[in-house]
Amino acid sequence: MAEEERALLGPAGGDHGGGGGGSPGPPRALSAVCDPRRLPHRLLVLALMCFLGFGSYFCYDNPAALQTQVQRDMKVNTAQFMALYAWYSWPNVVLCFFGGFLIDRVFGIRLGTIIFSVFVCVGQVIFALGALLNTFWLMDMGRFIFGIGGESLAVAQNTYAVSWFKGKELNLVFGLQLSMARIGSTVNMNIMGWIYSRVRDLLGYTGPSTLGLTLMIGGVTCLFSLTCALILAYLDKRAQKLLCKEQGKTGEVIKLTDVKDFSLSLWLIFVICVCYYAAIFPFIGLGKVFFIEKFKFSSQEASAINSIVYIISAPMSPVFGFLVDKLGKNIIWVLCAVITTLASHIMLAFTFWNPWIAMCLLGVAYSLLACALWPMVAFVVPEHQLGTAYGFMQSIQNLGLAIIAIAAGMILDTRGYLFLEVFFSACVCLSLIAVVMLYFVNHLTGGDLNWSAKKREKLQKVAAAEKEI
């Protein structure tokens, strides 16, 4: 390490070797891949950051990819099946507030990332063991432990991104991380059913053992992400020593007392978030069997169409992010996304049109809403309340997803898919009402949520000039 420091920082002083011919030459510079200041090394770090959450996103939707197998092999109904998603969300109702605090004040970014990655790995192993031992409550426990690490790992991933990439690079890095997350979900949807078939052929029968081995194989992706966390910790520590840079921090300041100061606009944003995502993630969790039963798709075709939302999101999220940044008008974009989502659910519920149309529209709408909705929080709360606002938003989102997941399972068990789609459409309608209310509240209070990007930039420059005066 001392030699690496000399290579980066150069000689500490003048020529200490005298004028003799035996004096050592200048230190050999580090190669581009080993130099934290050089692009190749930063690209290596970026790749590790992107793969950091791959295992978590891959395994999150393991139940959706294996819905038929889980329900058949474990002999559970849909409500019990959807509880696997609810158990993931429950710990994050609380942890969303404290993930940043734990990284900043308790563990540090490097140790925190490794600990959260270990939780993800242990949770997936317990989930798989629950299937192997034919013990469903153990599977629920595994998902709970998996959830403890999953969301906090995403916070750690963003913290690393801010630490290594600042300024204009940062939005691109966030976009690439989101794209890699969606690729992980997509690969899971399309490969886990195939892995189950191969394990079944190897063992010669279906059942809990086949399901457990399949989930254990899927857990290899979590080990891969843990390896990335360990390498990233080493590279970050090395860069800290060589460049004398500080360890990354989330910058979050959580004060629960700030909640009482939240504006009506912010509460409406929370309602949009909860109601909208309640009609996306639980639907995808139950989507595979829906396409098999209603549209008579094969298992492989159902997996493919159920993953199209994530496939579209991977390339479109950075594109829509750039578009919203350039044009502004966030509320209009959110309104377009919600209306398109409602149209998609109505098509799936009441028509037998080719479902690829509705699912592609859903993928586009989902990508657009994420890029337009989440940045709006920064426009309606002061900077010192951002940590609390985003923490609260993620918290109630997880609370909503946990409750809706269980409700969706119960509706499907008792009423069927038509009632379930009507239920999801009703959730989107509530989101639509909240968007319309937000538009009028913003207009009446003179808010900037629907300003164009040019107007926003112009007024920011005026405000900055007034500050200098």
Describe the protein.
The protein has 469 residues and is mostly helical. Helix 7 runs antiparallel to helix 11, helix 9 runs antiparallel to helix 10 and helix 13 runs antiparallel to helix 14. The longest helix has 35 residues. It is globular, with a radius of gyration of 25 Å. The chain starts with a helix and ends with a helix. The N terminus is likely disordered.
How are the secondary structure elements laid out?
Elements: H1 2-9, H2 39-52, H3 54-60, H4 62-65, H5 67-74, H6 78-107, H7 109-132, H8 136-164, H9 169-203, H10 208-218, H11 220-243, H12 264-278, H13 281-295, H14 299-306, H15 308-327, H16 330-350, H17 355-373, H18 377-380, H19 386-414, H20 417-444, H21 453-468
Helix pairs in contact: 2-8, 2-9, 2-11, 3-9, 3-11, 6-7, 6-8, 6-19, 7-8, 7-10, 7-11, 8-9, 9-10, 9-14, 9-15, 12-19, 12-20, 13-14, 13-19, 15-17, 16-17, 16-20
Q: What is the makeup of the main sheet?
A: none
Q: Quaternary status of these chains?
A: single chain
User: Averaged pLDDT, please?
Assistant: 85
Estimated helix fraction? over 70%
Following the backbone from N to C, one meets helices and strands in this order, namely HHHHHHHHHHHHHHHHHHHHH
> What is the structural class?
mainly alpha
Q: Rg to the nearest angstrom?
A: 25 Å
- Which segments are poorly predicted (pLDDT under 50) over 5 or more consecutive residues? 3-27
Q: Please tell me what the overall shape is.
A: globular
**Count of distinct strands:** 0
- How many alpha or pi helices? 21
Strand proportion, as a percent range, falls in under 5%
Amino- and carboxy-terminal Cα gap? 49 Å
